[in-house]
Each structure stands twice: as structure tokens, then as C-alpha cells.
Amino acid sequence: MKTLITSALTLLSFAGFAQQQFTIEGKAGNLNSPAKAYLNYRDTAGTIILDSADVVNGVFTFKGAVTDPIDAGLMLMHNGEPVKGARSVDRTFVMLEKGNIKVNTTDSLTHATLSGTPLNIDYNAMVKAKAPMEKKLRDLAQLRIAYQGEGNTNFDKEHGAEVLAARKAFEDYDLGYIKMHPNSYMSLMILQVYINSLPVTMTIEPLFNAMSADIRDSRLGRLAGAEIAKYKLVDLNAPAPDFTQADTAGKMISLSSFKGKYVLVDFWASWCKPCRAENPNVVKAFNTFKNKNFTVVGVSLDYPGAKAQWLKAIADDHLEQFTELADLQSATNPVAALYNVKAIPQNFLVGPDGKIIAKDLRGEELQEKLASLLN
């Protein structure tokens, strides 16, 4: 889960974002060679930047320029090991913007304090405020892993409500920040996290429209506006876009052929571990409600040449009970593009009238939603 966020309202001047010169002044205890620091970010042209700096008496420095604020990963390799391919990385995040950004820690970057520029001051305060929420979610994630290691499938039943409550606490905090700080660029950065997961017409668009014209007209603001327009096409209560794709036997199947039923359009892939972990829940939902006007249409994002793996996953996960479709073009699957799917697993619940009535239902939440509609 992506996070961010409280502090006093930060009013940023957006009068021209052309080439904002930044400097990062870091201090990490008394570290020396072979320790190295790395700065990693994607610039506005989409180019991935990976810069490095020597660490001398704990001090390291980066200098550069961005056209508008960008979030970046700051990493510290204590023993000088290559950052690429490293399994464990000491890191924090910084906001690249005009000015001198200060990063200070006595040991690990995970304990670092950010200061020096408005966005970094705000971000530092947000991280501290949300630390208890982060810990709660980490603890639940570890508990889920422990359940899986023991072969215990009752995690969602026993802790699903707790997970939802922890995620809701994050969401409430973030949306509350945006409402309180409509003139902060940080609010725009937070809003982007939720564009693909919250109702666009009811929640996202009003928050975006309440932001200042300068923020909405920034590069990131224009991108957010375009994304909002895309997601409105698959928003709650919008007609589910129709599509046609081949099933496991090569027969072309259309979503519209299921009109009159409740249909879970489920995006997944054989190589996607979270998808495979969720599949038993999808099968459970199908078997529970298949006689109550409900079915599942799976859409696989498997790779070219991976039909055998796709079919094996269907058999292993018992998905042959319902419709499974694929064009074996992975991320370029036109159905995924039609539904603006950027990550999997992802699903859309379509009502008998062909309109989208829910999205991203997982675990017990899927069972409860179907029970509320069909029982």
C-alpha cells in the first residue's frame, strides 16, 4: 500500500516549475567508505535516474534539477554493496523540490528526519503521524504469512475486518488531509494514490476540483485530470464496457452475453502470486452463489507463449468451473486497457443491468457484498 501524511498547511508557489534546483544534504552517523548513498527517481520524461554519492564521516550530497516536485527513493548501502539486485535496502523517501533538503539520522534512513523544504517538512510529519497505522498493517501482513505457513485458511475470516479497518484508517487520514489542504501540492500527490481505488465521481473528482487552479494546471495536475477522466468510464454505476475474448477452447465470449446476471470480471494471471492466493476466495464465491444468478468471468494477463501455464493454473486453482478468457498478450490485453487495469488482482462486479456496482472486492469483503445482494 502506498502511503503519505499531518502538519500545518503548506502553501506552495506554483509560478513556473521550470528547472527547480535541489540539493540533498545527508548525514548518517559516522559512516565512511565503502558506504554509498543512492538517489532513485523517474523524471518527467519517464527516464529512471539512479545517482550515487560517497559517504564521508556520515555526510553525502546530491544535486540536481526537476521541473516540478517528484518523490524519490533515497538509499544507503552501509557496506558499499551494489544497490541493484540487493534484497535488503536501507531507504527512505524524499520530495525533490527547489531548495536545500536535509536528511539526518544517527543510524538507519528508516529513522531519518527530513527538513529544509516545505514538502519534506510536511512529509516528515505525515510519516510520524501514520507510523502506528503502518505498524498495524505490517503486523497483520506478518500474521497472514504465519497463517499461510501453517496451512491455515481462516485469516480472512478471523482478521479480515481488522485489515479493512486498518486500511480505512489510512484512507480517512489521507482524504482528511486533502480536504484540509486544498492548496498543497502534497494533497495532489496523495490523491493520485486513490484515483484507481475510490469512487471517482463521488469522491475523487470533487476533491480534485476543490484544489487551486495552479495545482490542477501543474503537470501532475493535468495528468491526474486525465486519469480521472479515464477512471470515470469504469466508475461505480457506469455501464461496464463490453468486450469479446477467447476462452480456453478458443471460443469468442462477450461480457454482454451474461447480461441479466451478476458477473465478477476478475483480472489475474498465472504468474501473479497475490492473484493465485485470492483464487480460492473467488472459487468459494462462485460455489456459494452460482445458483443465485451469479457467475465469474476471468480475464488473464498471461504472457505470449504461456498458454500451458495459464491452463495449468486454471486446473490447479479449480477455475474451470466458470468462464476464463485470455489473449495471452499480458499487459497489452485490450480488455485490461478498456478497464484501466494497472495492477492485478483487480475485479469489477457488474449487476444484471450491466452497470458496475463494486470494485476490488477481496476476501470476506467479496463474500459479504454478494451475500448482501443475493441472499
UniProtKB/TrEMBL annotation:
Residues 1-18 form the signal peptide. One of its GO terms (cellular component) is cell envelope. It comes from the Bacteria. Residues 234-375 form the Thioredoxin domain. CDD domains: TlpA_like_family. GO terms for molecular function: antioxidant activity; oxidoreductase activity. PROSITE patterns: THIOREDOXIN_2 (PS51352). Coiled coil: none annotated. It is found in: Cell envelope. One of its GO terms (biological process) is cytochrome complex assembly. Keywords: Cytochrome c-type biogenesis, Disulfide bond, Redox-active center, Signal. The keyword Disulfide bond applies. This is Redoxin domain-containing protein. It comes from Chitinophaga oryziterrae. The lineage of its organism: Bacteria, Pseudomonadati, Bacteroidota, Chitinophagia, Chitinophagales.
